[in-house]
């Protein structure tokens, strides 16, 4: 079963997909979207879901450090419900605290330029979200 990992921001959605065995996550792309219009990424996402035969989505849930759910977390919960209703696949909300910071650190250590980091940070965060989930399952 292949799983998609999503790092949902207000302007972009980072996307990663698992291998068929559910062992590894690979960064796929970043979709530009408008958070105010939930359907704005549906067409692109549907194409990816079909192309990769996705059966489940893991969506990053940004919690506050004190474990509460803030505005960004509520937006992720809303988008997870939208994915289930629109694309008819189950979703799992995954605690993504510090994944963007960790992704930034990895890219800095790899000496990726600021311009290039900006382009891949969301995709890298999606990989970390999905890989965290896969590691816990295996």
From TrEMBL:
It holds the Pfam family RuvX. GO terms for cellular component: cytosol. InterPro entries: RNaseH-like_sf, YqgF, YqgF/RNaseH-like_dom, YqgF/RNaseH-like_dom_sf. Its EC number is 3.1.-.-. It is found in: Cytoplasm. Residues 1-103 form the YqgF/RNase H-like domain. Transmembrane segments: none annotated. It is an enzyme of class 3 (hydrolase). CDD domains: YqgF. GO terms for biological process: rRNA 5'-end processing. GO terms for molecular function: hydrolase activity, acting on ester bonds; nuclease activity. Could be a nuclease involved in processing of the 5'-end of pre-16S rRNA. This is Putative pre-16S rRNA nuclease.
């Amino acid at each position: 079963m292949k799983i998609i990992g999503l790092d949902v921001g207000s302007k972009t959605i980072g996307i990663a997909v698992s291998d068929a065995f559910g062992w590894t996550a690979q960064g796929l792309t970043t979709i530009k979207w408008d958070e105010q219009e939930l359907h704005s990424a549906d067409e692109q996402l549907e194409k990816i879901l079909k192309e990769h035969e996705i059966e489940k989505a893991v969506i990053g849930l940004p919690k506050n450090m004190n474990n509460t759910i803030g505005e960004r977390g509520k937006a992720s919960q809303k988008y997870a419900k939208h994915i289930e209703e629109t694309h008819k696949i189950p979703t799992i909300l995954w605690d993504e605290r510090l994944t963007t910071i960790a992704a930034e650190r990895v890219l800095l250590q790899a000496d990726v330029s600021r311009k290039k980091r900006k382009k891949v940070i969301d995709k890298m965060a999606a990989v970390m979200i999905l890989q965290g989930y896969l590691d816990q399952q295996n």
